[in-house]
Amino acid sequence: MERTLGELAKILNGEVAGDASVTICGVSGIKEAKTGEIAFVANPKYLPLINKTSASAVITSLDVKKAAKPLIRTESPSLAFARAVSLFAANELKRPQGVHPTVVLGKDVKLGKDVAISAYCVIEDFVEIGQKSCLYPGVYISQYTKLGEDCIIYPHVSIRERVTIGNRVIIHNGTVIGSDGFGFAKLRGIHHKIPQIGTVIIEDDVEIGANVTIDRARFDKTLIGRGSKIDNLVQIAHNVVVGENSIIVAQTGISGSTVVGKNVTLAGQAGLVGHITVGDNAVVAAQAGVTKSVPADTCVSGYPAKPHHLAKRINAYIQKLPALFKKTAELERKVQKR
Predict the structure, then answer these.
(1) How would DSSP label each residue in 273-323?
(2) Does residue 184 contact residue 193 with C-beta atoms inside 8 Å?
(3) Which of 47, 38, 40 is closest to 76 using CA atoms?
(4) Whole-number pLDDT of residue 66
(5) Where are the domains positioned within the chain?
(6) Alpha-carbon span 14 to 20, nearest angstrom
(7) In this predicted structure, what is the pLDDT of residue 91?
(8) Are 117 and 100 in contact (CB under 8 A)?
(9) DSSP β-ladder status, 104-105 and 122-123
(10) What angle do CA 51, 72, 65 make, to 5 degrees?
């Protein structure tokens, strides 16, 4: 399939800078692209690559006025390129269809229209699955759980009892939703399990990566807000609330009863103690250890986490410690000689 740059710009809601008649027949990365393909640059520091690429055209932000190659200028180059990929890169993978004969269905299971359930899935009693949802092999869904419409559940996902999952939710391989919260009472040196009788609610348009664990609440609910995206290997403890459109990056751990606001970013390996609040639009930098609440619209880093500008200054001082130690030792020797 070929399209002119002008035709492609209309589809991507962008504007052409340069020759709109250039023919595009494929997509590729800016470094790997060949003649006839379109690439993209989202990060300004990679703009010099436009002059070096073999791509016939490049998708950029609106800030780029002209370049050595014809451009499609868009509000979001990454999103526009993703749409271009969908146009040119045909998906040859076939999604499951129908209910495989090896599926185990409990009593009073309700399946919506065009639901697909692959081999060796186990769906227990009183489960509801919305129309056009797709379960890949080996998925387990426990009693009284509700799964919305147009969901994709990849292999070996476990969804425990009384969990509610909204529409258009994607859950990747090996994730566990609704496992028991980590609650024990210690008496005379023995840890006694505290029952976790709450639930988990996953709202619409959430995507959850591989090998994520989201624990059920001790009471009430653990909540993942609409549109939030969770990377692989994330642990979310009981009674945590994650607001809408938040991003949680790989290996982050959130302790129980912490509230994460809307549009928050928790970068890789961030760790949050329990019973704190992270305000709306806050950013927690990679490997930060958050020990107290974070105000809205702020960025914190370091351990213990503090405002990013302060953490950078402290780190700069730490880097100077070897020189300071050497200078101090020299001063001590001079004092001892007197």
Answers:
(1) -SS-EE-TT-EE-TT-EE-S-B-TT-EEETTTTEEHHHHHHHHHHHHTHHH
(2) yes
(3) 40
(4) 83
(5) 3-88, 104-311
(6) 12
(7) 63
(8) yes
(9) parallel
(10) 65
Are the CB atoms for 167 and 130 separated by under 8 Å? yes
Amino acid 178 reads G
Q: What's the whole-number average pLDDT of the chain?
A: 95
Q: What is the edge-to-edge ordering of all strands in the sheet holding 71-74?
A: 15-17, 71-74, 57-61, 37-40, 26-27
> φ and ψ at 321, to 5 degrees?
-60, -45
Give the architecture (CATH level 2) of 104-311. 3 Solenoid (2.160)
For residue 152, the SS3 value is strand
For tokens 């129309």, the residue is 131
Supply the DSSP string of 167-207, one letter for each residue. Answer: TT-EE-TT-EEEEPP--EEEETTEEEEPP---EEEE-TT-E
Distances (CA, A) of 321 to 252, 307, 329, 332: 30, 22, 12, 16
- Residue 92, pLDDT above cutoff 70: no
* Residue among 100, 172, 191, 238 flagged as catalytic: 238
Please give the CATH architecture assigned to the domain spanning 3-88: 3-Layer(aba) Sandwich (3.40)
Does the annotation count 172 as an active-site position?
A: no
